[in-house]
Design brief:
four-stranded antiparallel beta sheet; binds pyridoxal-5'-phosphate; Aspartate Aminotransferase, domain 1; alpha/beta; Aspartate Aminotransferase, domain 2; 13 strands; seven-stranded mixed beta sheet; 2 domains
């Protein structure tokens, strides 16, 4: 199998699994228990919190563990004060768009922040948002489909000067490009473990001191009272280890990914009618979204699947209907062209040989 869908999820790193296993077997105590068998587990969570906070340059007390990026995004939007409006970029992940729409249905003003043809937010749009003065703005750092990286540091500084709380979904950027909480000047940041070779079902919300979090899960007071529920210890330990490895290996990984992506782009240019979406924008080193004129992306995905190659299509097929990707639609891409999209997202274990094989197989389909 050639796995080229790392933005969907990544395999667990062996070193991460090794770190997790003792917490599924020997150290099964409840971290809230006061005896030693519990305290050992609680210390492991503390260590993981340090590892995750070190990756983004915050204090451990600024990190609350969640069940993943989705919960972190929901929690971030839940801080919105009553009466306040919010603004989210049109290319956000559904775990931002859906809670934003729910807030709208409950009476909050919702503004969509448009992007240009390259998927980038513009200064003019930010100026407009500042005039609207929402309570909260959510802009993702890197897009899961196109890999487009927004200039969060620049916009967050402007927005916070006007008293606006800024959240960024850094789920896809983490482990691929440097992600520094302070440098990005945001108040809130969402992270996910399974995109950085950690286990699924674990993530975190990082927050600036002084920002009031409204817990969405109430109960036993775990996670500084911000996220109740007995901790998913092994997953948290795994997330911590994955974060530590991402920090140590970041430069090496992104260099490797960029080399592969360049080889991929060079090979793809030989295919007639092929477009690379958001080609002019700064993008993640591992992500390439392409469309081939007149070819249905989902059909292409299935053909590649028959050759044991995993990629993702750009369409939202959850509803069973072949709708064009809202991300590409927001970029002004016509429906037919958007429906031709497939996303190739590379990972640290991919090789140049796999890239060449992928290009060979794609060409052999005689599209
Ligand atoms: N945000 C982005 C940009 C994502 O790509 C994803 C996952 O696909 C999420 C949030 C959700 O993260 P999780 O799968 O950990 O809930």
């Amino acid at each position: 199998m050639i796995y080229l869908d790392h933005n969907a999820t990544t395999p667990i790193d062996d070193r991460v699994l090794d770190a997790m296993l003792p917490f599924l077997t020997t150290f099964y105590g409840n971290p809230s228990s006061l005896y030693r068998h519990g305290r050992v587990v609680s210390s492991a969570i503390d260590a993981a919190r340090e590892q995750v906070s070190a990756l983004i340059g915050v204090q451990p007390a600024q990190v609350v563990f969640t069940s993943g990026g989705t919960e972190a995004n929901n929690m971030a939007l839940a801080i919105l004060p009553s009466q306040a409006g919010l603004a989210v970029s049109a290319t956000e992940h559904p775990s931002v768009i859906e809670p934003a729409l729910q807030l709208k249905s409950r009476g909050h003003e919702l503004a969509m922040i448009n992007v240009d043809a390259n998927g980038l937010i513009t200064q003019e749009t930010i100026d407009e948002i500042i005039r609207l003065k929402p309570g909260l703005v959510s802009i993702m750092l890197a897009n899961n489909e196109t890999g487009v990286v927004q200039d969060i540091a620049r916009y967050a500084r402007q927005l916070r000067e006007h008293g606006i709380i800024v959240h960024t979904d850094a789920v896809q950027a983490l482990g691929k490009i440097p992600v520094d909480f302070k440098q990005l000047a945001v108040h809130l940041m969402s992270l996910s473990s399974h995109k950085i070779y950690g286990p699924k079902g674990c993530g975190a919300l990082a927050f600036e001191k002084g920002v009031t979090i409204n817990p969405i899960l109430l109960g036993g007071g775990q996670e500084q009272g911000l996220r109740a529920g007995t901790e998913n210890v092994a997953a948290i330990v795994g997330f911590g280890k994955a974060a530590e490895l991402a920090r140590i290996e970041l430069a090496e990984r992104s260099e490797h990914l960029l080399k592969l992506k360049t080889a991929l782009e060079n090979g793809l240019t030989e295919i007639p009618g092929l477009t690379i979406f958001a080609q002019q924008a700064k993008r993640l080193p591992n992500t390439l979204q392409i469309g081939i004129h007149g070819i249905d992306g989902e059909m292409l995905l299935m053909k590649l699947d028959k050759k044991d190659i995993c990629v993702s299509s750009g369409s939202a097929c959850a509803s069973g209907e072949n709708e064009p990707s809202p991300v590409l639609t927001a970029m002004g891409i016509k429906s037919d062209h958007a429906k031709s999209a497939i996303r190739i997202s590379l990972g640290k274990a991919n090789t140049e040989a796999e890239i060449f094989e992928f290009i060979k197989q794609l060409k052999s389909l005689n599209l």
